[in-house]
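Example S7 (structure tokens).
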């Protein structure tokens, strides 16, 4: 009598996922926060921290409109996305990915422009902080795009197990499958 062999991959309960990948039932049922989401939270926390430190002198300014209001808006938006990702909101997942790309492109452009044109000694630290923010935002984008992050944010159709990023309502409380048009 031979020892029982572990389940072969073809015998496990699996269904097709995005781009030919397979979503395992055990992965779909998992509720704890995956490492990729922790990475996104940490990277977005770094961006928030850098903005908060850079905003302190600006927010103490006596201007009512302009730079202090813009910095407060950016900080508020970053905090909302950070809190939304922590509490597993799909809308925060979507806007976290979108704004990470926009922020990375903007910060990356300014960083590369500063490398090419040269920066004054007084703003050299701020220039390198732009580079750190750009790298952190790229990490946020890719970390939230992993299969485990999509499963964690309930972006897998329970019926056909395809990944989606389509909202069924305005606040993304319900998702809609692109393949079978199922809502959950």
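Recovered sequence:
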């Amino acid at each position: 009598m031979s020892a029982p062999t572990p389940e072969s991959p073809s015998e496990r309960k699996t269904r097709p996922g995005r781009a030919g990948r397979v979503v395992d039932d055990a992965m779909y049922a998992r509720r704890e926060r995956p490492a990729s989401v922790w990475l996104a939270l940490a990277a977005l926390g770094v961006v928030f921290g850098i903005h908060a430190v850079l905003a302190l002198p600006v927010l103490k300014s006596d201007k009512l409109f302009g730079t202090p209001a813009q910095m407060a808006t950016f900080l508020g938006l970053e905090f909302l996305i950070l809190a939304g990702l922590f509490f597993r909101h799909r809308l925060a997942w979507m806007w976290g990915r979108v704004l990470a790309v926009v922020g990375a492109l903007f910060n990356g452009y300014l960083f590369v422009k500063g490398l090419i044109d040269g920066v004054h000694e007084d703003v050299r630290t701020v220039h390198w902080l732009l580079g750190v923010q750009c790298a952190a935002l790229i990490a946020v984008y890719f970390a939230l795009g992993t299969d485990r992050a999509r499963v964690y944010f309930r972006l897998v159709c329970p019926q056909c197990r395809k990944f989606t990023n389509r909202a069924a309502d305005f606040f993304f409380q319900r998702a809609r499958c692109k393949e079978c048009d199922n809502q959950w």
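Notes on this example. Residues 156-184 form one domain.
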